[in-house]
Amino acid sequence: MNAQKRYEIFSRLRDNNPTPTTELHWQTSFELLTAVLLSAQATDVGVNKATAHLFPIANTPQGILDLGLDGLKDKIKTIGLYNSKADNLMKTCHLLLERHGGEVPDTREALEALPGVGRKTANVILNTAFGQPTMAVDTHIFRVANRTRIAPGKNVLEVEQKLMRHVPKDFLHDAHHWLILHGRYTCVARKPRCGSCVIEDLCEYKDKTEIA
Predict the structure, then answer these.
(1) CB 134 within 8 A of CB 126
(2) Residues 6+ apart with CB under 8 A from 39
(3) N or C: which end of the chain has fewer CB within 10 A?
(4) This prediction's pTM
(5) Spatial separation of the C-alpha atoms in residues 212 and 206, rounded to whole Å
């Protein structure tokens, strides 16, 4: 795949969705961090249902701590792995208060030092909350990058690094949202909907389908 084709791909994705964003519901950087922590192996819809009950009661680190571990678990028990997620969120809230004055930090190093926050989560926060050009490679982006040949790689870090090199700068800020949404709704895992894909003629996938 060459640079001209990549530019056209992202041009079309932008034309199709000029202002992409996460489907998680959030208003503050802490709400976003909480939602992303809860989203591992869970759907955004499921997380949004839980946070709709949680955030009106507790949407700050101190508010979460005031709930207590059992109270937090009760609010998020509809989400998979809620026990470990509650533990990590409580520990994260302690560290945010102790080290960052209750604010979510805007550096990768500080974010990845928080319990339950890995590279992908840090990239989401840096990009979505703080506007930094990062690439949060999840299963959708990994699939789309390899299938289309935009940035093929054997693992998520390799794909991330290639995307950061090859995505045109004009599109870098929003690229990971476009790719996630494309993988979630069009370039789906089992039978990609190539028939309704806005980049079908540019995609280098060899086994295209006619599904719309």
Answers:
(1) yes
(2) 24, 47
(3) C
(4) 0.87
(5) 17
